[in-house]
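Agenda item 2: zinc ion complex prediction
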Amino acid sequence: MNYEAAVIPVDYHLHTRLCGHASGEISEYLEQAVRVGIQEVGFSDHLPLYFLPPGRTIPGYAMDEKDLPLYVEMIKNCAEASPVSVRLGIEADFVPGHEKKLASLLCSCPFDYVIGSVHFIDGWSFDNPGEVDEYSRREINQVYERYFSLLQQAALSGLFDIMGHPDLIKKFNILPSLDLNPLYEQTAMAFQRAGVCAEVNTAGLRYPAEEIYPGPLLLNIFHRHGIPVTLGSDAHQPEQVGEGFKNALKLIRDAGYREIAVFGERRREFIKLPNC
Ligand SMILES: [Zn+2]
Ligand SMILES: [Zn+2]
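Presented output:
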């Protein structure tokens, strides 16, 4: 495939209705990808909440464990007839202490890549609009420190290929007073040591942060440490596929990147960015 001819090389972060909070048919996500000039997409729906006690779930948060084989089958089937190349990914929460269960779930499916995301800080679903009040009860500097510490632990767990939306904690634009540079440096060093890739995720543009995850400062630090990047929209509706990618590609190029990471069977390759 001639990736260099594509306007947009990849969108590796698409959800499906199986997670309970996304809408649209898989075929509609693929049609939108064609419309906006994406060469390869990857579905990476929310992995079942493996870290909860057996039988427990949070309704509408992630796919049921029984639906995981169905998800794999759906994506494999749509890939056969798709006008764009389709990869099978998954977005997995990182919750320390449950790594074994996560590893066995990830091994059970033929994923092309696994996105590791921190959505929970010690049981608090901090990116959930329904739990935003909790910020007013917390010390925000400590919240940021804990978030980046979990993100580093996630990277170093060795379970993930891509670290999802690596500064998601800024989603509601509730910002700390501390200097973020040292936390960003530590995070980049952990990513480097772990050999993971960082996701440049445009969903932040849709929320009060109004900024891509990661922001320019963190992305520049990633580049300086040689951390590869890939691209995702975090689409939960077909029309969000590729949304904000013009900005994202500019941000990536401005940080100094000339190539982007792509994945197949959990192996990483690089392709040149368009116009580089
Ligand atoms: Zn979601
Ligand atoms: Zn996420």
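Discussion summary: Residues 1-5 have pLDDT under 50 and may be disordered.
Owner for follow-up: CH.
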